[in-house]
């Protein structure tokens, strides 16, 4: 399925689920997404994170609503199931398409401005360099007898100053390579929208409406 249309389907589904109070549609979506991720051979470590990480906020919701709030256990379970729906569906699109492919698809199919593509791609490419720079700042401070922890404001202030310097270098590099924010961006690989993408999007939304309307709980 086209990445843009898959993301659009997930966003619309998440928005509708947010404003409905039914548990069964959430469970059906969770089961379908789990089967899809099993088909995509999701690593065991990723399974552990997406299934174990929501346990803490889920328990907090159950305790808050079930014992100290409205005492509505069914509504508490609905909220917990929403957390798993959001995490699993988000993991599904990331597992299916790389972030770079998703960014290019959104730009081409939804006609987003070139600034969007440039900004996202620059941010993604600078993530490893930013992590490395933070480690260098901590090591340099340690050599001077100063301990910078991850909650130290000085650490982030120095990292922000470095990022500002990088932004100026990146702008000069883009201009020297002929990038122009007011011109349409050329692509090496066009991500086409097929008829099947439309059918999958419309069919998925229709199935979701049927679940939300006819499921008893």
TrEMBL record:
Record field: transmembrane: 23-39, 46-68, 74-94, 198-214
Tagged with keyword Transmembrane: yes
Localization per record: Membrane
Membrane topology: Multi-pass membrane protein
Highest taxon listed in the record's lineage: Bacteria
One CC-aspect GO term: plasma membrane
Keyword terms of this UniProt record: Membrane, Transmembrane, Transmembrane helix
Name of the protein this chain belongs to: ABC transporter permease component
Organism: Limosilactobacillus gastricus DSM 16045
């Amino acid at each position: 399925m086209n990445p843009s249309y898959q993301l659009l389907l997930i966003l619309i589904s998440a928005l509708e689920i947010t404003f409905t109070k039914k548990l069964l549609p959430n469970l059906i979506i969770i089961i379908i997404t789990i089967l899809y991720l099993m088909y995509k051979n999701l690593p065991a470590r990723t399974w552990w994170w997406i299934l174990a990480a929501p346990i803490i906020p889920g328990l907090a919701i159950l305790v808050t609503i079930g014992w100290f709030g409205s005492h509505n256990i069914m509504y508490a379970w609905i909220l917990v199931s929403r957390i798993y729906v959001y995490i699993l569906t988000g993991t599904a699109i990331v597992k299916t398409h790389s972030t770079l492919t998703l960014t290019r698809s959104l730009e081409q199919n939804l006609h987003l401005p070139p600034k969007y593509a440039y900004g996202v791609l620059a941010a993604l490419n600078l993530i490893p360099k930013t992590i490395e720079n933070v480690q260098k700042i901590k090591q340099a401070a340690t050599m001077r007898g100063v301990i910078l922890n991850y909650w130290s404001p000085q650490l982030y202030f120095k990292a922000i100053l470095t990022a500002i310097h990088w932004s100026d270098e990146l702008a000069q590099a883009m201009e020297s390579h002929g990038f122009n924010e007011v011109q349409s961006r050329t692509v090496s690989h066009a991500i086409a929208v097929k008829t099947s993408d439309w059918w999958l999007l419309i069919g998925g939304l229709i199935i979701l409406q049927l679940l939300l309307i006819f499921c008893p709980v």
